[in-house]
Amino acid sequence: MGQMVQLRASDxxxxxxxxxxxxxxxxxxxxxxQEIFGVNSHIKAVADGYALAGYLAIAPQTFARAELDVNLGxxxxxxxxxxALKTKIDGVPAPGxxxxxxxxxDLGRFSTKGKxxxxxxxxxxxxxxxxxxxxxxxxxxxxxxxxxxxxxAEMKRKPQCPVQAHFGKKDHWIPMDTVEAFKKAYSQVEVxxxxxxxxxxxxxxxSYDETATNEALVRALAFFTKHVG
Length: 229
Fold this sequence. Notes:
Layout: E1 2-8, E2 14-20, E3 29-33, H1 41-52, E4 56-60, H2 76-90, H3 97-112, E5 116-121, H4 123-134, E6 140-144, E7 164-168, H5 176-185, E8 190-194, H6 210-227
Parallel strand pairs: 3-4, 3-5, 5-6, 7-8
Antiparallel strand pairs: 1-2, 2-4
């Protein structure tokens, strides 16, 4: 269903991306942001799912400025490698990865002549939250268990599009008291919490929770239908 394409960022950087197209005319586009494990088989499957729902799905390699074609699994060694790559990307001068995400959004708008939403998981959830403020042309943003989203620094952001956020109540990386503070600070953000752990959406992880995944997806698709098309 999908193919690799090249995105050109505003600074000229070429960022590879996985793009999955629907069978019929796209109802809009969804940018899918990876975890710290790269655009691996799970992220490609997520993109394929949004394509089946009628959207042009674009998953940029947000590690590309540090390393191309990262495809990690979910072992402790993979996690360490992913954290190291994230640290490298965090050290890239601004706008850095945000420019690559902007390029993905621009491609979505150009290719569909429609609206664009964004969804991300783990680190991609944090990038989704940042993009809601920093990336232009977004009509909706859906971060899943974005590590750092509920920190004091990130709670100073002012999203420029509607946001729906998903968290796990058993997620020790994102304590529920910080989620409640986030919810209180952003009354306009639609916040959902599930009896699940960090990474509950990924069926390749031990923390996968089918019930939470299905409930969150129904809500995300309804949110995108409302705001993207």
